[in-house]
């Protein structure tokens, strides 16, 4: 079984309507290319320059009519899915209702990855577990995602889709292979790693980590990415890409993250085919699962 997927590359800002226009453009191109799934990066609908704005603009991700007016992104994504007849991987939305930060009592959100079908219904929801808290004083880097985001409570999430069984993660999760092993055990065939990688970490680790996770789990891996300068405080690495179960990079959207004009490169998509027969052959020829089950317990 072969299916085409589209992987978006965006430079999202704090303007939700503008971001939705970019997504609609990508959806149109994806449909023209014959894709059945469109993958969007982390923070595809809102990239704030201040933590409190992330919390203030969080949405309730359900079909309740009472929340419609305040759920601009969620409703917009539903409309795009229906209009273009696409499944959508919404790689990271700020979801309201997370527990406050203890002991400060500061309000927080969930960083939520949703899978939406072509009728606009939510098929699966994963709340990011591993939060990016990194401080490198000598390089003036101080990022603390946990200040405005609570760790997820959904555990490992997989779901069926037209392109295969999906395993849901978000960005920093890629550094924790245990999560990917569990997704494979639950039948994942296509791993999703929507991201907004920083430039230094992207340049050093992006391709290596993604190829490693695909090779280890013998899965396709789709990584939609943010690129370029979002605001005065945030720049992303780019390089939306797809990796096959043998570790080959099938497509790479490239990156121009430090260029002031990088927004001229987006929105854009790259496309590739998911061939589950090829995936099965890779697993048959190198039966890692069998070898793991025969080994002494070590996890």
Give a verbal description of the structure.
The chain is α/β, with parallel strands linked by helices and about 300 residues long. The chain has one domain: Nitrilase/N-carbamoyl-D-aminoacid amidohydrolase, CATH 3.60.110.10. The mean pLDDT is about 90. The strands form three sheets. Strands 1, 2, 3, 4, 5, 12, 13 and 16 form an eight-stranded mixed sheet that branches. The protein starts with a strand and ends in a 5-residue tail after the last helix. The protein has seven helices and 16 strands. Helix 1 runs parallel beside helix 3.
Q: Any idea what the CATH superfamily is called?
A: Carbon-nitrogen hydrolase
Number of separate structural domains: 1
Q: Roughly what percent helix?
A: 25-40%
Question: Separation of termini?
Answer: 33 Å
Assembly context of the chains: single chain
Largest sheet: 8 strands, mixed
CATH topology heading = Nitrilase/N-carbamoyl-D-aminoacid amidohydrolase
CATH class: Alpha Beta
Element order: H for helix, E for strand = EHEHHEEEEEEEHEHEEEEEEHH
The total of helices stands at 7
């Amino acid at each position: 079984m072969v299916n085409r997927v589209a992987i978006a590359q965006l430079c999202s800002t704090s303007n939700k309507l503008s971001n939705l226009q970019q997504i609609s453009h990508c959806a149109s191109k994806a449909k023209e290319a014959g894709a059945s799934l469109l993958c969007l990066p982390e923070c595809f609908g809102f990239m704030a320059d201040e933590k409190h704005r992330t919390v203030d603009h969080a949405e309730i991700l359900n079909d309740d009519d009472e929340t419609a007016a305040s759920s601009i992104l969620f409703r917009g994504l539903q409309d795009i899915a229906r209009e273009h007849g696409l499944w959508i991987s919404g790689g990271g939305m700020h979801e309201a209702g997370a527990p406050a930060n203890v002991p400060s009592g500061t309000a927080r959100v969930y960083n939520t990855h949703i899978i939406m079908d072509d009728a606009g219904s939510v098929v699966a929801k994963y709340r990011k577990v591993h939060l990016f808290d990194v401080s490198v004083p000598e390089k003036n880097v101080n990022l603390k995602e946990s200040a405005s985001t609570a760790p997820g409570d959904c555990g490992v999430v997989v779901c069926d889709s037209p392109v295969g069984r999906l395993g849901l993660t978000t960005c920093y999760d890629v550094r924790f292979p245990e999560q990917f092993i569990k997704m494979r055990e639950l039948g994942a065939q296509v791993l999703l790693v929507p991201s907004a990688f920083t430039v230094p970490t992207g340049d050093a680790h992006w391709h290596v980590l993604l190829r490693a996770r695909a090779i280890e789990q013998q899965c396709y891996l789709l990584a939609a990415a943010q690129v370029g300068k979002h605001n005065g405080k945030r720049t992303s690495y780019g390089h939306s890409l797809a990796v096959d179960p043998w570790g080959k990079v099938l497509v790479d959207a490239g990156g121009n993250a430090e260029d002031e004009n990088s927004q001229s490169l987006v929105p854009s998509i790259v496309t590739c085919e998911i061939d589950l027969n090829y995936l099965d052959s890779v697993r048959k020829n190198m039966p890692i699962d069998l070898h793991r089950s025969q080994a002494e317990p070590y996890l």
